[in-house]
Design a protein that fits this description.
13 helices
Length: 301
């Protein structure tokens, strides 16, 4: 199957429309792996659109999808069937997919993250799990690569949160930990002047935390098959650049999304060639996963 239909769009078209940074990076994967990556992205986008959409009964729909992943007796829609086939073909751990759904279910209620540990567990649910699944997409044979793949997902999600502070506030979500900046989502949605500097400092703190996970992930990329390394490095560096652009704007989150332009993407892609130099991969920094005990891919689970 070259691509799975999502409405009128193929998997690659879904990736091109909604995941521009990932679509750019996919050009360096080769056809087979790029097709797999697009199919995984399509499933992730499918559940994300439900979670963030305005259709009724979103919570129940997400719970039904979660059940259909683990119980073959439960009827599954086309998108879920396509994912299950992909998961079977390349041995994607289903617990990673169900934890992804758990993260989406958390977003169905007003979100007010308490502390850094809660933030990291959420980031693992909605993005660390995707890194874990991508290891299978890329035919990675190193078991310890899972730890670094989770770190990349977490780093990217922290970047997403930093980029989307205003948008998330308008959706009733505040992912910035309360012990960093204890404002309500409504305060943030209205970009109240009294909270701008404090939330900007918290946004910078998000980016600093993301850097720790990007640094770890960049080391682990050496464990991927050689063909995949360049593409994932490009994706990492382009996503990391979003945070750099945001810093250039002094983390002025109330001014809307920070974007990476095409010229910057080309320069970053060329620079990423230097990351292909062979390096010894040190042991994973266990303290990065202290808050993640018991979750998919952590400590071999």
């Amino acid at each position: 199957m070259d691509a799975v239909q999502s409405g009128q769009l193929t998997s690659k078209q879904v990736l091109a429309k909604h995941g521009k940074s990932f679509y750019w990076a996919s050009f360096f994967l080769g056809k087979k792996l790029a097709d797999r990556a697009a199919r995984l992205y399509e499933f992730c986008r499918f559940v994300d659109d439900i979670a963030d959409g305005d259709l009724p009964h979103r919570h129940e729909t997400l719970e039904d999808i979660s059940q259909s992943l683990i119980n073959p007796q439960v009827s599954a829609g086309t998108e879920v069937q396509a994912f299950l086939k992909l998961a079977k073909d390349i041995d994607i751990p289903i617990n990673a997919a169900t934890e992804l759904l758990d993260g989406m279910l958390l977003d169905q209620q007003p979100t007010a993250v308490k502390d850094e540990a809660e933030l990291l567990r959420y980031c693992h649910a909605v993005a660390g799990t995707v890194g874990l699944m991508m290891c299978r997409v890329l035919d990675c044979q190193h078991a310890r690569a899972d730890q670094f793949a989770i770190d990349l997902g977490i780093a990217m999600q922290l970047t997403n949160i930093a980029r989307d502070v205003l948008e998330d506030g308008k959706m009733g979500r505040r992912y910035i930990p309360a012990d960093w900046a204890n404002y309500t989502a409504e305060d943030i949605a209205q970009a109240q002047p009294q909270c701008r500097d404090s939330v900007a400092m918290a946004t910078k703190r998000l980016l600093n935390l993301a850097e720790k996970y990007y640094t770890s992930a960049l080391l682990g990329i050496q464990l991927l098959p050689f063909r995949s390394r360049f593409s994932i490095t490009v994706a990492l560096r382009i996503y990391r650049q979003i945070g750099i652009v945001l810093r250039r704007r002094h983390c002025a989150w109330w001014k809307g999304r920070a974007m990476v332009g095409k010229t910057e993407k080309i320069i970053i892609s060329l620079y990423s060639l230097f990351d292909l130099r062979p390096k010894k991969v040190p042991p994973h920094q266990s303290e990065l996963h202290t808050a993640l005990k018991g979750l998919a891919g952590v400590d071999g689970k």
